[in-house]
Amino acid sequence: MGNGVQGGNLQENNKTVIWRPHEEKYRTSEWYTGSGQITTADEGLSFEVTAVYQLKSEVKVIKDIFAISNDTLGNIYRPRGRCIAVVDQTVAQLYGEKIEGYFQAQEISLELMVVRAWESDKTPETVHRILGFLGKDGCDVSRNEPVLVIGGGVLSDVAGLACALQHRRTPYIMIGTTIIAAIDAGPSPRTCTNGTQFKNSIGVYHPPVLTLVDRQFFATLDMGHIRNGMAEIIKMAVTDDKELFELLEEYGQELIKTRFATMDASEDLAKIADLIIYKALYAYMKHEGTNMFETYQDRPHAYGHTWSPRFEPAVKLMHGHAVTIGMAFGATLSKELGWLSEQECQRIINLSSKLGLSVYHPVLEDTTIMIEGQKNMRRKRGDGGLWAPLPTTIGVCDYAQEVEPDLLNQAVIAHKEYCSQLPNQGAGEQMYLRDLGLE
Ligand SMILES: NC(=O)c1ccc[n+]([C@@H]2O[C@H](COP(=O)([O-])OP(=O)(O)OC[C@H]3O[C@@H](n4cnc5c(N)ncnc54)[C@H](O)[C@@H]3O)[C@@H](O)[C@H]2O)c1
């Protein structure tokens, strides 16, 4: 290549060359491609490059991923002769034998790293350890060899980040084994580790090339994590899908009780569970998957995530509870702004509360933390405004750009008053992180 003929020089005038690399001949990745243009300046000593990068990210809800008869993973890894996998420690304890048995039966060699992935392990050190496994001193993964990541949201964030850093971009396939990982963190392009004061602040955009969702994994989740995962489904329901909201109102409690229809559940409930998972994934990826680099801030899935990244680590809440507190407060704020009716605001708060999720925490009254949270978020979201998604009706949201301290305080007071008459004054069940010894 180099003279613009053999490669992909599609168009040329005096100043601009549109260049598309030779697709068939030189392409090495199944998932990533790109093209660009180069424009020279009149003085002949400078030029500007504009490039477009394209990626493919597939999502599938499937059954029994590790049943010997299921060829989904076999077909991907057999031609490569091996599978490099990073697996959450608890998942390895519960499913390790099954996973190893599967690859053995498929005659694919498995190179496996087991990682403890508690929230407190979401650190650059954990990312480094995974890089050690992937790199030259470990299994020396190729830049086109998809790493298999199996675990919860913490693992998907740190292992996804390690994959992004290895060879600058190594693909990975995600099997989310918690609800949060299955429908939100897993398919998400946002890989990360925690910073010192702000969750998830260090990372890169690198979605899995394939996300496989099998709700059978939820059978071993404890109730706390089932409930926790419901928060992210409620988020998509409130901001994007009214029908999903109504399904949660009708079946939410039963789904929690049956661990998402994996225990003592009818066929009908199992179908509802798949529908709810699919709808949540679709709503999420419709916005997040088509805006992979968060270039645009009309992001409904940021609902409940404006103040919580600051207060979640401060009071050691489980992520889902921090998000529902943020969402419930956001609903009240929207009502105070005159955007949302009182009746719909209460419906949103009541759904979370009925499912045992937290809708209130005294940390909301800590003005310093709340204002600091807004400041951090404004900086993170690009200085243009706060871009806080708030529901305007169930299934639709708009974005608040400014929340002055007076309005913030007024909304906190109104929210506290409403929540004080809810069970436990709006506190949820098992709301604190257990890996830090809190309950
Ligand atoms: N990147 C994103 O867009 C995004 C989105 C949402 C959440 N997150 C992140 O995800 C994290 C929360 O995810 P999470 O709730 O999955 O937490 P987690 O990864 O800590 O998993 C929860 C616990 O469940 C265990 N576990 C995993 N699968 C299991 C199974 N099938 N059976 C029994 N136990 C199992 C894990 O070992 C862990 O102890 C937070 O750090 C949050 O910031 C990221």
From TrEMBL:
Top-level lineage group: Bacteria
Entries under Pfam families matching the protein: DHQ_synthase, DHQS_C
3-dehydroquinate synthase C-terminal domain location: 229-362
InterPro entries per record: Dehydroquinate_synthase, DHQS/DOIS_N, DHQS_C, EEVS-like
Domain 3-dehydroquinate synthase N-terminal, first and last residues per copy: 113-226
Keyword list, A-Z: Lyase, Metal-binding, NAD, Nucleotide-binding
Gene3D superfamilies: 3.40.50.1970, Dehydroquinate synthase-like - alpha domain (1.20.1090.10)
Names of required cofactors: NAD(+)
Protein name: Sedoheptulose 7-phosphate cyclase
